[in-house]
Design brief:
By secondary structure, the chain is mainly β. Helices cover 7% and strands 46% of the residues. The strands form 8 sheets. It has a 26-stranded mixed β-sheet that branches.
Length: 555
């Protein structure tokens, strides 16, 4: 037991509680702020524990937790290098860039050395090592990148090695060297879009398709005339740059400036509709093979492109603007030269192609797009090939037998399309990207008069048509497209029965039109592209033509 001096204070219930009275608080007590009822008394026999030297004995305890760092601990006492990685991008000319090295320590820090790896054609300019950084000192290093020296792919590093146990910093350099091929395509240019789809066919002919490539490959093949006077540049370019990246201007998507450029502005007034301009991609402003400029797109609207820097000269409205793709030669180019004129025969594959953003077609039937572009004949004919699986069992000793396990015959057709302007070509390109090669099916009418309508007056859900063998020979062909004077109607045939010498069609929903509005009735089948490779042959003025192979599927 121990005796100490304390103070007794009353509470609202008339009870009292005890607080310690120490020399430290004596001044507070002497202020007169305590209530009058407070009395200093001697308290005895109060069991409060062991006292040591008139104080409490303390007991050590262990606690676990995390250290909460403040802003100073996050930002300071380290080496900060910015930017890292250094994104050089696709360069088409020599580039002058910078790296900032900041000593965020409050003491001197020594940079012992800088180790370079895979930086051919790149010069780092800065103080000689070893370099002493004062506290909170920043030093700027210049990075000069040559477009004509070094490998086409820039993938190098700088290792900053600091003394005194400070962690080394590895700076990555990423980019690609690109030299432009400043010549316009000419009539006969071939563009190929190449998807990759695995098609698995079951015993009954139904299919399962699997996409194996994220975006299509794009290739351009051409044989173009090169203007007189340009043979030295072309010869040097092909000799030196054969395996490297080219900046290929896509002149099949070119369009003229709507107003001259300005040397004090990065803005280019040009229509961007119906062409594949991309943020971060390159464009070329073209007058002649000796008078052009490349720039990188920051943003664009339907009528203007904004680039990363001001245009260096004034281009008039006769200049053309076109997307530029990063491409490499697929095979050895051939240059034909007779002393005055030359031609270049080459095939390029684009390395930065991507899938275009597309939306569903406005015409839908049973959850799939309906393709209603009137097909053109090729060599005066629309050729259909009727394909079915026929298994022949023949042991050579008796009568042979055949089996046809497929539910439906697959009709293969190749039809033509002609593009009269950039909008037609662009819409076809979007349609191809939505198909993704053989992957995604669609509906398509035969565009033939497959049923002769005999009904007259108002048409509802029952039609009378001429009997031309559809009842017995058109099993599983239950979907029709009806072209009317005001558009298309799509229906499923639920019943097909004989009615005298004619046939009666029962449809899944009413037509609610007059028979006089019907132009023709076609069978409609589920189709897919027969091939993953689709080729466009370009003529002049953004016009072109294409052959489209399609296959009817069972499912």
């Amino acid at each position: 037991m121990a005796t100490f001096t304390g103070v007794i204070l009353p509470n609202l219930e008339g009870e009292t509680y005890i607080t310690l009275d120490t020399d430290v608080r004596q001044t507070f007590y002497d202020t007169g702020l305590l209530p009058d009822e407070a009395q200093f008394v001697d308290v005895t026999d109060l069991e409060i524990g062991d006292l040591v030297d008139n104080g409490f004995q303390t007991f050590a305890q262990n606690h676990s937790g995390g250290l909460c760092e403040g802003y100073a601990a996050i930002f300071y006492n380290r080496i900060i290098i910015d930017p890292n990685p250094l994104q050089i991008g696709n360069i088409v000319s020599d580039q002058a860039l910078t790296i900032s090295v900041f000593n965020a320590f409050f003491t001197d820090t020594t940079l012992d050395s800088i180790t370079e790896t895979n930086v051919a054609g790149i010069e780092l300019v800065g103080p000689a090592t070893p370099t002493v950084f004062s506290p909170l000192q920043e030093i700027i290093y210049d990075v000069n990148v040559s477009v004509s020296e070094g490998p086409p792919t820039i993938d190098g590093t700088y290792l900053y090695d600091f003394a005194g146990g400070i962690a080394d910093v590895l700076v990555s350099l990423v980019g690609a060297r690109v030299l432009p091929l400043p010549y316009l395509f000419q009539a006969g240019l071939s563009e190929t879009l190449n998807w990759k789809t695995k098609v698995m066919t079951s015993n009954d002919g139904s299919e399962q398709r699997m996409k194996l490539r994220g975006s299509p490959r794009q290739e351009f093949a051409f044989n173009i005339a090169i203007p007189n006077g340009n043979h030295p540049e072309l010869d040097s370019l092909l000799y030196t740059w054969r395996g490297n990246n080219f900046g290929l201007p896509i002149s099949s998507e070119c369009r003229p400036l709507t107003s001259p450029t300005s040397i004090s502005s990065p803005n280019i007034d040009v229509s961007t509709e119906f062409a594949d301009f991309r943020v971060g991609g390159l464009i070329m402003i073209f007058n002649t093979p000796a008078d052009f400029e490349l720039a990188e797109i920051v943003s664009f609207t339907t009528s203007q492109i904004i680039t990363t820097q001001n245009i260096t000269k004034v281009f008039g409205t006769s200049a053309l603007v076109m997307p530029v793709r990063i491409a490499r030669l697929l095979s050895d180019p051939v240059r034909n030269f007779n002393g005055t004129t030359q031609r270049l025969n080459a095939r390029f594959r684009v390395t930065d192609n991507t899938s275009l953003a597309v939306v569903a077609a406005p015409d839908q039937y049973k959850g799939l797009d309906v393709y209603l572009e009137q097909p053109l004949t090729i060599s005066r004919f629309a050729t259909d090939k009727y394909t079915a699986r026929v298994d022949v069992v023949d042991f050579g000793a008796g009568v042979a037998d055949t089996f046809t396990p497929w539910i439906k015959t697959k009709v293969n057709r190749v039809f033509g399309l002609q593009f009269d302007d950039a909008e037609d070509a662009w819409n076809y390109r979007l349609w191809l990207h939505r198909r993704e090669g053989k992957l995604r099916p669609f509906w398509m009418p035969t565009f033939e008069h497959d049923f002769e309508l005999l009904s007259t007056g108002g048409l509802v859900q029952t039609l009378i048509v001429a009997d031309e063998g559809q009842l017995n020979l058109s099993n599983e062909r239950n979907d029709i497209a009806i072209r009317t004077t005001s558009g298309w109607l799509f229906r499923e045939i639920l019943t097909l029965i004989q009615q005298g010498d004619d046939l009666q069609l029962g449809l899944d929903s009413p037509l609610s039109i007059d028979a006089s509005e019907v132009e023709f009735i076609s069978f409609m089948g589920r189709k897919r592209l027969t091939s993953d490779n689709l080729e466009i042959s370009w003529a002049n003025n953004n016009t072109g033509r294409v052959s489209v192979p399609i296959t009817e599927i069972n499912n």
